Amino acid sequence: MNNFSFTPARAVDAALMQIGPGPGSTTAAGFGKFIAGGTNLIDLMKENVMMPARLVDINGLPLDTIEAGSDGGLRLGALARNAETAYHPEVAARYPLLASAILAGASPQIRNMASNGGNLLQRTRCYYFYDAGVPCNKRVPGSGCPAIGGLARQHAILGASEHCIATHPSDMCVALRALNAVVQVQSPRGVRTIAFADFHRLPGNRPDMDTTLAHDELITHIELPAAPQFAQHSAYLKFRDRASYAFALVSVAAALDIGDDGLIREVRVALGGVAHKPWRIEAAEATLVGQPATTESFERLALGLLEGAEPKGLGLGSNAFKVPMAHRAVVRALETVAQGTVSNDGRDRGGEAGAAGEGSAS
Amino acid sequence: MSALFKDSASNLQAFIRPDVQPVAEPGTGHAVVGDKVKRVDGRAKVTGQARYAAEHTALDMAYGVVVSSTIAKGRITGFHLDDAKAVPGVLDILTHAHRPKTRSLGLFFKDMTAPGGTPFKPFHSEGVLYSGQPVALVLAETFEAARYAASLVRVDYEVEEHETNLLENLDRCHKPSRLKVGFSPPPKPTGDADAAFAAAPVKIEAEYYSGVEHHNPMEMHATTVLRAPDGHLTIYDKTQGSQNSRWMVSHVFGLGKDKVTVKNPFVGGAFGSGLRPQYNLILAVMGSLHLKRSVRVVLTRQQMFTFGHRPETLQRLKLAADRDGTLQAVMHEAVAETSRIEDYVEVVVNWSGQLYKCDNVKLDYKLVALDQYSPMDMRAPGAAHGVHALEVAMDELSYELGMCPLALRLKNYAERDSANDLPYSSKELRACYTQGAERFGWADRPLAPRSRKEGSEWVGWGMATGTWDAMQMFARARAVLHADGRLEVSSAATDIGTGTYTVMSLIAATALGLPLESVTFQLGDSTLPVAPIEGGSAHVATVGSAVEGVCEKIQKRLLKMAKAMPDSVFAKARLEDVEFAAGTMRLRNTPSTSISITGIMAAANEAVIDEKYLMLPNMLKQKKYIRAVHSAVFCEVRVDEDFGTVRVTRVVSAVAAGRIMSPTQARSQIIGGVVWGISQALHEETHSDHKLGRFMNHNLGEYHVPVNADIHDIDVIFAAEDDRIVSRLGAKGVGEIGLVGVAAAVSNAIYHATGQRVRSTPMTPDKVMRPG
């Protein structure tokens, strides 16, 4: 871990001043970083993966509220903690998909610390990215990607490039993608909004850039559009190597709006653990509108979502299993939400819990 | 260095705070062996008073941070140290080219548990033998400065081609050296296993693979060297044997026994990782000798993956039986990895010749040398892999026979050891089967796999047998009884969290009939009477026997003193005629004769009784028997085969391990073993990138062990057993047995649930899920 300065900021404007100018890359050494919960950044600093010269502590900024948004939606402060958000009555009642995704992630201790804005910026848990002793294009652009042809079991099956096959680790973001969230950011140049679909990037030839956020831009809020049609039919299912505190091999955020005629009015499905960003294809969803909520329909959507999926690695290091796992996850999630909503609140984590290891239909 | 400190030994002494001595809470009262008691070190641990290796400090402390190699094999051709040295507070950087003198012969680096070959010698030469090898130690005034400077050290290497892939190098396997304490090579074949296999009507043949595992105790390996002005080193080391570390420091640096004291009063888990002194010890001593200061070196979690591990192992088993289940042939071969410099050996296949009755047995065990650090004993070394494969193979055979897996085991129950034709010193395995099966409800199990589905999950029941050696080594103990009735017992034993403090206090309190809080047991100091390294589940049978032995000497002294009292009712009593209870000595047949221990001391006008005792195992008697502990493990799993997720919802472990001295701590040992067995079955593996020759998931986020949500009901049964051949206490050991067989039971339950056999551990979702 390098030496760095640590400055608390009392106002957004001041924080934006303190972060200082920087080049396009948010990973380069020597530049400033905002710090909130620190649940990922501090780890990365201890591993010499990120070496900021300045940390601007934004925990004192007035961005920790959860309040009504425009058009009947909800506005999540960037500094509201993941746990506060998941257990907020408005979130739990109106966006159970988001609450269940947050509760599927990390551990209670981490969720108590981690901020909503920080969750969007957490970095891949690719082994190679985390080990400063080996090459990684994301950490040191141009150094190479040993994950390609190496231990790729946890890596991307969709949207990868010849430079990087890392996956985005967040659970919360998969739900936010399905919910059409909008990210509000502020910089010395002013305020702008970024559609969630455009917030995270595919790696392409710049795997060092996880997002489209500029170095000096601060996430201030996450806006959730109204989505009452999904509250009774949504679920976040996560499949992983142990029952908790592991990143998704595959996860799926699913929401259905079924009409009185039993036909699908709207469907949303986003996948986690399969790509450099939450994976969602609106065109594939559109083909189900007006169709019956049956396994056949769900299978079709799964096929559409996974079109072009390409396994990486060989033998035990291969992620080929993720293709059928993701397919089945989409179908299982949609079959589940057709019956009701899954909360993932751990109330029923006894011997009889459901297939995802936690959660229940309600 | 502070002037205050410079020439005053007393200042240093003032800073070396005495270690807290665990003792039972006041009011605990009389407790004897077999009673459930709280662990006596509990309060010290939860209040932070118990200090671990990295928690000791000194006024002149310097901090060392290790720089690890990034290549797996080659030579160091140069260091770029200027940037690191420029960091304020950096004192110096040690490397192979710049370090205090050590002895160079490999012999001096051999610790008491070293296998055959030449141990790794830190900073010995420019050669790089494995990825993660320590190549430099940055010493600085603060930990932060050392850590930052370490990140700035650049090393030039000449890279050579490495081999880390066991499965691609099987053709290079060799017959291993047998030079390791406690290792027995596979016995010679009995009968004609090949012919019997060919002729038998029912047979199975399969390969079983197990990946690398690392111990990962919560406490990182660390060494704090406190240097006195006269040069004496008091070393707090994370080790399972203070005397082993002391021995190695003396040998490597040519420092006499009087110049070095090693202490480990509290150890935050070890699981075998502390059986051998690790490089943090050698490097911290180097730093201290070089700077003439106190030095602390703490490894990072990542560096916890840069020394010993449970070796990757490939096994092939062939079993054959008559149609009634009578075993006709057992053939078990194993190939495991080792380093280029040592033949790390463990007993993998021998269990297969011992656990069941069979006349035709052929066993084989070979090693492949790879560019890795030497593997190392890890909880139930060898048995964790070997018994697993045997027990999964037995399950496979049971389905081939159409027989209940438990019935198959009972059919082939070994009353004597087949290989050596010796009787067991005691063996209550049958009771384990019976009691475990009853508690679990095994009788209701449908024979066929894929018989029960609940919701999206298939439910399966599996079982397996476990076994481990019941060993005893030699040890000394000292006991001092004070006039006020306090008893201080000591031996250079270790408590790696297992409950040594508690059980030894309990044994001593029982022997002299004292309240538990009047007894202390001191351990974890190389200057105390000799004790073995805490390993192999032998500490109770060994040190416990020494403790009872020394207490018996005190009993004799007390009796002699009582006899000398005027008109003593004990005048004609022999030791076997008296008993010690409730703080008194009394005639067994006349309890009203009791006289208090303090009264005897007062009458004799003795301030203390101070005795020592050497406990030597009765080898002549012991070698006429096979000495082992046994278990029967039953478990229930629920498998969602679409995703390969497995939940182990119920485990019953029935254990026969001699007399259970301290049931609360013994039960904790078994529960911990079961949890680790579940981990071995489902979660735990260190993944190697063979192109880089490097372990890659070297942190606890990605090296998976079970979390609370993975663990459900675990029920422990101790079958009654009392074995006075293994130890005078009747005790065997419980450290390893809890783990053995658990992974096999889980594997067998998964098969029963789904009909899919998984022969590779850990059985992660990708291996368990229905193929795409």
Furnish the topology, listing elements before pairings.
The complex is a heterodimer of chains A (362) and B (772).
Chain A: E1 5-8, H1 12-19, E2 32-35, H2 41-46, E3 54-57, E4 66-68, E5 74-77, H3 82-87, H4 89-94, H5 96-103, H6 108-113, H7 116-121, H8 127-130, H9 172-178, E6 182-187, E7 190-195, H10 196-199, E8 218-224, E9 234-239, E10 250-258, E11 264-272, H11 282-286, H12 295-305, H13 322-339
Parallel strand pairs in A: 1-3, 2-3
Antiparallel strand pairs in A: 4-5, 5-8, 6-7, 6-8, 9-10, 10-11
Helix pairs in contact in A: 5-9, 12-13
Chain B: H1 3-6, H2 9-15, H3 42-46, E1 61-68, E2 74-80, H4 82-85, E3 90-95, E4 116-117, E5 127-128, E6 134-140, H5 143-152, E7 154-159, H6 193-199, E8 202-210, E9 222-227, E10 233-237, H7 242-253, E11 260-263, H8 279-291, E12 294-298, E13 313-321, E14 327-339, E15 342-343, E16 361-370, H9 383-401, H10 405-411, E17 416-417, E18 422-423, H11 429-440, E19 453-454, E20 457-469, E21 475-482, E22 487-490, H12 500-512, E23 519-522, H13 539-563, E24 578-581, E25 584-587, E26 590-596, H14 597-604, E27 608-615, H15 619-622, E28 628-640, E29 645-656, H16 663-682, E30 688-689, E31 694-695, E32 711-718, H17 742-754, E33 760-761, H18 765-768
In quaternary terms, these chains amount to heterodimer
Shape descriptor of chain A: globular
The total count of strands of chain B amounts to 33
Poorly predicted tracts of residues of chain A: 348-362
Distance between the termini of chain A: 47 Å
List keywords for this structure.
heterodimer; A: 362 residues; alpha+beta; 5-stranded antiparallel β-sheet; 3-stranded parallel β-sheet; 13 helices; globular; disordered C terminus; B: 772 residues; 5-stranded mixed β-sheet; 18 helices; disordered N terminus
Can you offer a commentary on this structure?
The complex is a heterodimer of chains A (362) and B (772). Chain A is an alpha+beta fold and 362 residues long. Chain A has helices at 12-19, 41-46, 82-87, 89-94, 96-103, 108-113, 116-121, 127-130, 172-178, 196-199, 282-286, 295-305, 322-339, and strands spanning 5-8, 32-35, 54-57, 66-68, 74-77, 182-187, 190-195, 218-224, 234-239, 250-258, 264-272. In chain A, strands 4-5-8-6-7 form a five-stranded antiparallel sheet. In chain A, strands 1-3-2 form a three-stranded parallel sheet, with helices on one face. A three-stranded antiparallel sheet of chain A has the order 9-10-11, sandwiched between helices. In chain A, a hairpin with a 5-residue loop joins strand 10 and strand 11. The N and C termini of chain A lie far apart (47 Å). The model of chain A is unreliable at 348-362 (pLDDT under 50). With 772 residues, chain B is α+β, with helices and mostly antiparallel strands. Chain B has 18 helices and 33 strands. In chain B, the strands form nine sheets. In chain B, strands 3-6-1-12-9-10-11 form a seven-stranded mixed sheet, with helices on both faces. In chain B, a hairpin with a 4-residue loop joins strand 21 (475-482) and strand 22 (487-490). In chain B, helix 12 (500-512) packs parallel to helix 13 (539-563). Chain B is globular, with a radius of gyration of 27 Å. Classes of the chains: A alpha+beta (362), B alpha+beta (772). Chains A and B meet through helix 8 and helix 13 of A and helix 5 and strand 29 of B.
